[in-house]
Amino acid sequence: MKKITLMALIVMIAICANCSYAEKTEKVAPGQAAKKSDKEVTVVSTSLRAKEITGEITGISSNYISIVYSQDEDNATEYEALLLVGEGTTFTRKNLSALSVGDIVSVQCDDYIQTDSNGRKYCAKRVTKEVKFLSPARKDKLVGTEKVR
């Protein structure tokens, strides 16, 4: 009986230690301060970067579109962007359901770039503004480009 009680006590201590560790390493949403090794890390600036991504649609859902915009045949690598589509997104075709996998599109989006107090930059938010239909799906693969304005 003592062995079972001792095992239960060890398990309880391990669970409590794990919970307190999880509280200390909890992720913080962008724009909020995160405590890392007794130094506050905060967002010091936010900038807007307009971007145009042209490529082939590889996936469509009710609220997103996935586009392959570049390929590196030497490394057998594809570069793909997953873009959320909301109510503010405009289409040259009627709506998202009018597009299909394989269609070539150009997407205008805005990236909100944040810089933290350590000087690191990251994309905090991407807003898809417009999806322009360029051509229907083809048998041969066509891969697009990415332009940053």
Highlighted features:
149 residues; alpha+beta; 2 domains; 7-stranded mixed sheet; two-stranded antiparallel ribbon; 15% helix
What string, H for helix and E for strand, traces the elements in order?
HEEEEEEEEE
Silhouette:
globular
Major β-sheet annotation = 7 strands, mixed
Helix/sheet category: alpha+beta
Give the helix proportion (percent range): 10-25%
Binned strand content: over 45%
What is the number of domains? 2
**Helix count from the secondary structure assignment:** 1
Average pLDDT, all residues: 75
Distance between the termini: 71 Å
Radius of gyration, CA atoms, in whole angstroms: 23 Å
Low-pLDDT runs: 16-27
The total of beta strands comes to 9
Write a brief caption for the model.
The chain has one helix at 2-24; strands at 34-36, 39-41, 43-60, 64-72, 77-84, 90-91, 104-116, 121-135, 146-148.
What does this protein structure show overall?
It is a single chain. This protein is of the alpha+beta class. The chain has 2 domains: 2-36; 43-148, no CATH class. 15% of the residues lie in helices and 50% in strands. The protein is built from 1 helix and 9 strands. It has one helix at 2-24, and strands at 34-36, 39-41, 43-60, 64-72, 77-84, 90-91, 104-116, 121-135, 146-148. The strands form 2 sheets. Strands 3, 4, 5, 6, 7, 8 and 9 form a 7-stranded mixed β-sheet that branches. The protein has a two-stranded antiparallel sheet with strand order 1-2. A hairpin with a 2-residue loop joins strand 1 (34-36) and strand 2. The longest helix is centred in the first third of the chain and has 23 residues, at 2-24. The protein is globular and about 55 Å long. The termini are far apart.
